[in-house]
Specification:
heterodimer, A: 301 residues, alpha/beta, B: 597 residues, Nucleotidyltransferase, domain 5, 9-stranded mixed sheet, 5-stranded mixed sheet
Chain lengths: 301, 597
């Protein structure tokens, strides 16, 4: 599975990290692990949360059993723990921030989830053998790396033939609202965004109960030291350069469909105008509310 | 060869049942296929299973019977809204469009659904309609071992009826008396289910399980303000305290003021108050049922009693009916809730509409142990296990029984997946989780680490039929786990001097089989008969051989908020999701630690 030397602590594999930007980001998450586990959360309640998430529920169903899966940039590994729960899949949670991974590891240990492994490494360091995974997920991560394309180009290699990649990135058009708010945040701070960010506005209805979530959201959306945005066409180009066949996207490339009902079912890329329209539209629906993240799913030839 | 398909749907627990020449041959609940607990949608998957299982097409079905009359139900709804107007407008606004769109014209809706799914639907296929409580009464009487019986059905509400009394004789059922909406024992119990923070139409048995932790100190208040009970057990509710007739909740502010608290929020702490409330309503319910049953015996002087309807799932009340020996014999439909209405509708049509004879078998009902669902052969099960990449060992039958009994005796818990799936809410040794009842920590472990449910919930003992009198104060059989009885004094362990309150009572060991003895020394018994489930019988027998204890913990093979497992894949998923040690599917055994190698 691994090409380089590592230190093993139970089911956690620790590698040396050399990249300075990664170290910066790691320091940021060391200070604010994201997302945190709730008090008294167990695998059953985590599963209920996962089952209510459109993307992750479909992903779990798609993985079925006996698959090898990796989540690159797993943070505290809530998604990985959810995907491991109740299956015999081998789930690898990969992240450069040791503190975040340790939180996931503790949750897995306390809940007797035995088919999850934690990899503390940097995507740039190329520590994983080629052709290892059936599915790789990398959502909300590449836009926080020094060179998102270079980071992405590491993923196809570790996929098996016919393996699937799912990437989630901030959209150049869909994140306009957040970008404007980020500008104002610099000058006016939390007071401003708490009213103008729809997610924070909702969380602020019960500020005591949601204090942790408010802090995490502000950190992730407004204070992150490294951030870039990307378009549908840019990712289509990335896919093409790495022999990845486009399968589907959220939001859909097709104007007639906002969100595809089956995200692993092959759909068309439509035309450039339609794609731009769909991305601009993100600002006027929940995608824009949630920071303009879009998902692309591809299959390795 | 006449096939009658019975269907129940659109309220909760939809199901389908197939009878051939009057014999129940298959039945299943839709929730098992859709994996949505208490699913109320049209049971298309259950129907597909029935046809496949019996190797027939839809065109082979002679009659399709729905378990209730939608127009009568709609009439009740309209009249209720009119009677309570203008209050209830909000609920009216929500309910009426759904009724007009989906529920009122059910005949067309059902035929359209069948056409969508079966190309061979016969143009002449027609849908017949039974009545809700007639379906319940038929499900209780026709499969029973009695040629003549008084039938008592009680639930929330059907069309108008909430409680019915009928006389079953040979192939006829004659309705003798009824209590109508809004006066309902089922809805009264559901109102308290809601008030104590459990889910209506599903959480009622949690309320029943909570009752022994409390004291019935609110009983007098309930009898004084909420319900007027007459000597014959008939009753009238004081609607000043309830909101269910037209509102979106079960109870109202008057109810809260009467007891001095707001309804408990789901997942908030269960206090002594809630336990006392549970104990009080349980006691009132038992009193009413016993009054009704006594008056029925006095009035009709018939030896046998049949029970169905959701209220008949109150196994504590059932146990008291049996203990008092009011009737010589009692038979309860195992799928007493609305799912069982599918069987009742089909049987009512067969005997009442087609006027077919009926001959009850002495001492044997015709429910086939309620094992009426999906099944896998050894080869089919192993093929599925291979497909999902499970690691398992194949054994012959005797080896499998040997290994499982030994492992259970060492404190291991197992998922037990054998033969045809049960029809009804109880797992009876086909889709069960089994464990050692002697283990002090088993109740807590099973509740918290395997079922992920409230720690107070009791577990049921499955005991060899011939041994039941050696362990419990119970001399009959209870194949469907629908009766509660007390453990014998010599098996009890007296409580220590420490006085425990509420859930702390769980800390006491209570008996030599603590995992299946509730805090009031009661247990919801399943007697296991070699003739109806030989595998489960053999396993318990082997366990007895090792431990001198002819009892196993038997709880449904599922986790909280999920239906009982149906397929091999469901079982594997549940096994992998929990701290179960073993999964036994037919003759194959899976060990948890080997799944990750």
């Amino acid at each position: 599975m691994f090409k380089k030397k590592f230190k093993k602590i139970d089911n956690l594999f620790k590698f040396e990290i050399s990249d300075n930007v990664t170290k910066n980001v790691t320091a940021f998450y060391d200070f604010a692990p994201f997302p945190n586990y709730k008090n008294h959360q167990n695998k059953h309640s985590l599963n209920s949360i996962g089952e209510n998430n459109f993307l992750f529920k479909q992903l779990k169903k798609f993985l079925g059993n006996n698959s090898n899966f990796i989540e690159i940039g797993s943070g505290t590994s809530q998604v990985s723990n959810y995907l491991a729960y109740g299956t015999n899949n081998k789930i690898y949670a990969f992240d450069p921030t040791l503190k975040s991974l340790e939180m996931g590891q503790l949750f897995a240990k306390n809940n007797n989830i035995n088919n999850i492994f934690f990899v503390n490494a940097d995507i740039y360091d190329d520590v994983i053998e080629s052709n290892s995974f059936d599915v790789a997920l990398c959502s909300g991560v590449l836009h926080h790396t020094r060179d998102p394309y270079e980071s992405f180009s590491k993923i196809p290699k570790i996929l098996k033939k016919n393996g699937y990649v799912i990437i989630g990135l901030y959209n150049s058009y869909g994140r306009i609202r957040t970008k404007i708010r980020r500008m104002f945040y610099k000058y006016f701070g939390k007071k401003f965004v708490i009213f103008f960010d729809p997610i924070l506005r909702n969380l602020n209805k019960d500020p005591k109960k949601n204090a942790e979530k408010i802090k995490s959201w502000i950190n992730d959306q407004y204070e992150h030291p490294v951030e870039s945005t990307h378009s549908f066409d840019e990712v289509l180009r990335w896919f093409e350069l790495h022999n990845i066949e486009f399968i589907n996207s959220i939001p859909s490339c097709d104007c007639a469909t906002s969100v595809p009902s089956d995200i692993f079912k092959k759909s068309g890329i439509t035309n450039k105008m339609e794609r731009i329209f769909q991305q601009i539209r993100m600002n006027f629906n929940s995608f824009g509310d949630e920071g303009g993240l879009f998902i692309f799913i591809g299959k390795k030839w | 060869m006449t096939y009658v398909l019975g269907v129940s749907a659109f309220y909760h627990d939809s199901a389908a049942a197939l009878i051939l020449n009057g014999e129940i041959i298959s039945a299943a609940q839709e929730e098992r296929f859709t994996r949505k607990k208490h699913d109320s949608s049209f049971p298309i998957n259950a129907i597909k299973f029935l046809l496949k299982d019996n190797k027939i097409e839809l065109s082979s079905i002679d009659y399709i019977v729905f378990y209730e009359k939608p127009f009568l139900k709609f009439e009740r709804l309209l009249e209720t809204y009119l009677a309570f107007a203008p209050s209830g407008f909000k609920s009216f606004k929500m309910a009426i469009p759904i009724w007009l769109r989906e529920k009122l014209f059910q005949k067309k809706f059902i035929l359209d659904k069948l056409k969508e799914n079966f190309s061979d639907i016969n143009k002449k296929t027609d849908i017949y309609f039974s009545e809700h409580h007639l379906s319940h009464a038929a499900s209780a009487f026709y499969p029973s071992p009695f040629q003549e019986a008084i039938i008592l059905t009680a639930d929330g509400v059907g069309e108008w009826t909430t409680t019915s009394i009928a006389l079953g004789k040979n192939n006829s059922i004659e309705i003798l008396d009824e209590i109508n909406f809004p006066h309902s024992l089922g809805l009264l119990y559901s109102a308290f289910t809601y008030y104590t923070g459990f889910e209506v139409n599903g959480g009622e048995y949690k309320l029943m399980g909570l009752a022994p932790y409390g004291n019935p100190i609110y009983k007098d208040i309930i009898l004084k303000h909420l319900i007027e009970v007459r000597e014959d057990g008939s009753f009238k509710l004081n609607m000043k305290y309830f909101n269910y007739a037209t509102g979106l909740t079960m109870t109202n502010n008057n109810f809260d003021e009467l007891f001095g608290n707001k309804p408990r929020k789901k997942d908030s702490k269960i206090e002594k108050f809630h336990m006392d409330i549970a104990s009080s309503i349980q006691s009132v319910t038992e009193d009413i049922i016993l009054k009704i049953v006594r008056s029925l015996k006095k009035k009709y002087k018939i030896d046998n009693l049949c029970l169905a309807g959701g209220v008949a799932l109150n196994c504590v009340a059932n146990g008291k009916i049996i203990k008092e020996k009011i009737f010589k014999d009692v038979w309860i439909q195992p799928a007493a809730g609305d799912a069982g209405g599918s069987i009742g509708a089909a049987l009512a049509f067969w005997h009442l509409e087609l006027k077919k004879d009926r001959k009850a078998k002495d001492n044997q009902d015709s429910m086939k142990g309620s094992y009426l669902g999906t099944k896998y052969s050894n080869d089919e099960a192993n093929k599925e296990l291979d497909r999902i990449g499970a690691v398992y060992e194949k054994y012959n039958y005797e080896e499998m029984i040997d290994i499982v009994a030994k492992e259970i005796s060492k404190g291991k818990s197992a998922g037990w997946f054998q033969g045809k799936m049960e029809f009804g809410p109880r797992a009876l040794g086909a889709r069960s989780i089994i464990a050692d009842p002697r283990d002090e920590n088993m109740q807590k472990n099973l509740n918290l680490k395997i079922k992920f449910r409230e720690s107070f919930r009791p577990f049921a003992p499955a005991i060899l039929k011939e041994k039941v009198q050696e362990w419990f104060d119970f001399k009959l059989t209870s194949p469907y786990m629908l009766v509660v009885a007390n453990i014998l004094d010599e098996k009890k362990i007296k409580f220590s001097d420490k006085s425990y309150e509420g859930l702390e009572k769980l800390k006491e060991k209570r008996s030599v089989i603590p995992a299946v003895t509730h805090v009031d020394y009661s247990a919801r018994i399943q007697t296991v008969d070699k003739n109806t489930n030989y595998k489960f019988y053999d396993l318990i027998k082997k366990f007895e051989h090792i431990t001198n204890c002819p009892i196993l913990v038997n709880t449904s093979f599922n986790v909280r908020d999920e239906p009982i497992v149906n397929t091999v894949e469901d079982a594997f998923k549940c096994f992998m999701s929990t701290d179960l040690d073993l999964l036994v599917i037919e003759n194959s055994i899976l060990k948890k630690e080997e799944q990750f190698k």
